[in-house]
Amino acid sequence: MPETDLDLLIRAAHEAGRIATRYSGREAQRWDKPDGAGPVTEADLAVNAMLEQMLPTARPGYGWLSEETEDSGARLDRDRVFIVDPIDGTRSFADGSRTWAHALAVAERGVVTAAVIYLPMRDLLFSAAAGGGAFLNGDPIQVSAPADLAQAHILAARPNLLPEHWIGRTPPVFQRDYRPSLAYRLALVAQGRFDGMLTLRPSWEWDIAAGDLILREAGGLCTDRFGAPLRFNNARPRLAGVIAGGNTVHGGLAAALDPAGLGIASH
After folding, report:
1. Which of 52, 67, 108, 215 is most buried (CB neighbours < 10 A)?
2. 239 by DSSP, 3-state: which?
3. CA distances (Å), 16 to each of 75, 117, 167, in order?
4. Mind telling me which residue stretches traverse the membrane in this protein (predicted)?
């Protein structure tokens, strides 16, 4: 039986974990990218090299978009594309934390159809294929359903609560938590451990693509900050923020956000 896209991503994620965990986060060589784009380590590059060889070899007709590969634009002519973050949460990896992840996805005509988020240091593998549900280590997962936004635990960086983002310059009341990896935040919401996730800054597709499908297959909603469905493989691969959660949480956050709010939150 031919290997499905999801099976391929799972196999690739395990190999990525084997490579990344050979490096000690604090001792791995680290560089800062130009223009304040953040750090990159030798582990990011080693994982990316493996994925860029393995995945397109298995699917030669697919395009390629990765944080650690210079984007040529050739992917725009392909119906299907791999969207990859070799290590999401590089700062956490470099600090010796365990909350970094490999985020791998396939998008078809702008919609994610297969996705994996793998945290090798925590032995957590989140996965989904379109129409097949969402899973953590093979067990089904589902978003939570708090009675209202005030009871919700939302993963969001503090700058997202700045007044300029919200109608009446008043953020809604909810309990705020934070995790450094965007992919992991989305996976935690899909798992039901947290009730929602919010980021208002422009977000790279490779940080979001895998979590978008996993969360939607877990019964949640995942949109940009204006409530529009997320579309991937754009010429400029950035999204206008992300709101994610079950119906009540997503609706409460979307209704409270000022559609004209132009403040740029970090994280």
Report:
1. 215
2. strand
3. 22, 11, 43
4. none
